[in-house]
Amino acid sequence: MSASDRQTPERPGWSGPLRLRDMGSFHIGGQAQTLCGHPTSQHLLAAGGQPVELDPNGTYVTGQMYVQYYWPETPEHTTPLFLWHGGGLTGACWETTPDGRSGWQQYFVRRGWDTHVCDAAERGRSGYAPQFWGLPLSQTVEAVFERFRIGPSLQGAALSDAAQYAFAGSQFPAEAFAAFAQQLVPRWAHTDAMILAAYAALLARQAPAALVCHSQGGMFGLTTALNHPERVRAVVALEPSSVPDCDADSYQVPTLIVLGDFIDGDARWPRMRERILRFAKRNPCVHILSLPALGLHGNSHMLMMDRNHLHIADLVHDWLAAELAKPAAHLRRATVAD
Amino acid sequence: MSASDRQTPERPGWSGPLRLRDMGSFHIGGQAQTLCGHPTSQHLLAAGGQPVELDPNGTYVTGQMYVQYYWPETPEHTTPLFLWHGGGLTGACWETTPDGRSGWQQYFVRRGWDTHVCDAAERGRSGYAPQFWGLPLSQTVEAVFERFRIGPSLQGAALSDAAQYAFAGSQFPAEAFAAFAQQLVPRWAHTDAMILAAYAALLARQAPAALVCHSQGGMFGLTTALNHPERVRAVVALEPSSVPDCDADSYQVPTLIVLGDFIDGDARWPRMRERILRFAKRNPCVHILSLPALGLHGNSHMLMMDRNHLHIADLVHDWLAAELAKPAAHLRRATVAD
């Protein structure tokens, strides 16, 4: 999008110059996995290049995860912050909005957090291994338009006309839906354990951490907090696609679950919300932030991309900062239990 | 890798604090593509979540490309710089070396270039579409160890023992070969035209550009310079996997082709070098920089990750800066021909 196409202006001072004390990336986790008994084949990998005899038998690294970090020149928090994306997306979803505004990644860096953006294992720059897993699932843009609660149906319209089919009052920048569709990637449905293992390996290295996670990533964040409470200082789960099935009071990490709008009329979200509310009721450390209940209307499932995304970021930041100012009771308990 | 594992120190002043006037990312290119006539299927995408009926029929965006940019606070060059990775990798290969040193991305930002790292279409955060293309090709770490000229053969050794099997005098940080293996991703063999279309769309927006490209990316850089000379100010191709098959003198863009070591004993690279040298001989704007001929020994195919990677970056930077200080004769010709 060029600047002139933008319908939502940047909040002044929240894009542009940025001073870092370090930035970089790394891969973490994964394992060597061996394939054998398959035939070789010849491939020309570049027109005019030399043919390559590809033997698929041998070793691959699978399940590793890519992490990109940006540490502000003047940090204002001692706890590292991790952004975990949802299904069908990559870490790119935190960097920018479809209409080209600066995203939550920069927001949290500018608020003084050591910010880490992850591509879940098998997504984005983490790599994937179809030679072991077969074909992944891909979601159509029509399904995403509905399931991410941008509008009731695209009705076969061109992507560039998506804004006409969005919910009245939607905060999603649907005029740039085509740019959002460019961000979508395939995923597998049976890789949860592998993805969780990579997240656990990351937090084994940098903990305790604050997690801000979305949709499928929300489920990973909550599950990681349940399994490794000593590694997680606090969780903000934006519309988690599910919640852990655990005994009352067994979930110990301070958690905020944020819910957007248009849930009542959705095919799946009323039941998901019901499950989320039950989880919160059973575990007093879990708090619910319903944006409509707060008077914020029109938010889609892609809260961090909506027109009011920095308003929501402010709420998340303030909750996190207040939570981290309190004594971390669950960390002490985890340490004593060790 | 922790700092204590590093066998090669950072060059002082080339990592750590960094001041940017802007950074961000976007996707560009691609097209809407429709699938029809396939059956639907039910999937549980999150344990405890609501089942999703996935209808694969509908619209997908395919062939788009992810671009991440870092613009220094004090730019020292007016031409934007683009880093294009090779086959089996993503833009991550420019960010860091396997042993955790800071990579060419930061180097060029620190030298004052507006630096853009691309994930080629169908790699990394660009997304991919196996529902249209079938399964991609994956390379074993054993094949990569040989073909990237790190050593003659891993001989079935564990990845952590790779250093023992590297060429004597190798500049590749083979003690961290396992971390390099984490960076590998699958690729397709028939997507060149689609990838080139996305690169062309990018340069249609930000041109004329300086291209620094590697291996398969080298072929894309040279081909883009041949097809769109008006969009390319200069090309540095690190060990391009091929060169365009064009008439003498029809290639017009100032170009430096960099070649590493251990080529003579390789199964494929002597013929590839021969083809590269013929291309340079036919086109006077193409220059060859053979690192061994310059007294720099031990470089692998992964020049930008080798222990002397910043020495090579200096040579590339100096050639680019000198080239950009000259009048751009081919751009004037391209403009006149328009």
TrEMBL record, chains A, B:
SUPFAM superfamilies: alpha/beta-Hydrolases (SSF53474). One of its GO terms (molecular function) is hydrolase activity. This is Alpha/beta fold hydrolase. Residues 205-247 form the AB hydrolase-1 domain. Pfam families: Abhydrolase_1. Keywords: Hydrolase. Gene3D superfamilies: alpha/beta hydrolase. InterPro entries: AB_hydrolase_1 (IPR000073), AB_hydrolase_fold (IPR029058), Carboxylesterase_BioH (IPR050228).
